[in-house]
Design brief:
eight-stranded antiparallel β-barrel; two-stranded antiparallel ribbon; Beta-barrel_OMP_2; Outer membrane protein beta-barrel domain-containing protein
């Protein structure tokens, strides 16, 4: 019975301390917006050669972590470098073929019934962004505008074509640039944010279609979600 009363007294003391008002001024001095992020996008090809067109829905996925470094007293401005992974696919009518060890490019003739033709790219990403937000320690529901620059290294590329008579896949096409980079912006309220990325470099460093260099870049638009 004596031990029982000791336990009751201990729990009462813990409850009293837990109900004390937190010292927000002390905690706020260490407040950061370190965040995991997850994004989904629609991918559009820019600077397409003549007769190259997209079909179906080309998608992208982004995931990673950003480390927050506030740069003003109110901690509403910050710089955030990060590390992430991304996947982008492009469904179009540009066929990549390997004949005798040589990479060739052609357009799927009109009227040909094919099941699949896509280019898939897998990257490791190094983003860095400048942040403005209205967040405080007490509330994480806030407005934000994050602008940034992303450097990406290509881990794997896959081109796949499939129809009733042909089925071929090319991994790690040497004509595709290993280094990609671009600018992006993310803006919204709370978890829901509009996102846009504009590639500043051509996807292909080599390769030609009908005697002309293939110059393609990407515009990715979608939604970005941040998780503390």
């Amino acid at each position: 019975m004596q031990n029982f009363f000791k336990i009751i007294l201990l729990l009462s003391c813990i409850n009293v301390f837990s109900q004390e008002e937190p010292n927000f001024s002390a905690v706020d001095s260490l407040y950061r917006e370190d965040q995991f992020y997850f994004g989904v996008t629609y991918n559009a090809l820019n600077l397409r050669p003549k007769d190259v067109s997209q079909n179906s829905f080309s998608t992208g996925l982004n995931i990673g972590f950003l480390r927050d470094f506030p740069i003003n007293k109110n901690r509403t401005f910050a710089i955030a470098p990060g590390l992430g992974l991304s996947y982008n696919n492009y469904k179009e009518n540009l066929v990549v073929d390997n004949v005798g060890g040589s990479i060739n490019y052609s357009i799927i003739p009109s009227g040909v019934d094919y099941e699949k033709n896509k280019l898939a790219l897998y990257f490791v990403d190094l983003p860095i962004e400048f942040r403005w937000r209205t967040s405080t320690f007490e509330s994480h529901k806030f407005w934000r505008v994050y602008t940034g620059f992303k450097l990406s290294y290509l881990l794997l590329s896959q081109s796949r074509y499939l129809d009733a008579n042909q089925n071929f896949k090319i991994d790690n096409n040497p004509d595709i640039n290993k280094i990609h980079y671009g600018a992006y912006i993310s803006a919204g309220y709370n978890s829901w944010n509009l996102y846009a990325y504009y590639g500043l470099q051509n996807m292909f460093k080599n390769g030609s279609l009908n005697g002309n260099p293939i110059e393609l870049s990407t515009l990715n638009v979608g939604l970005m979600f941040y998780i503390l």
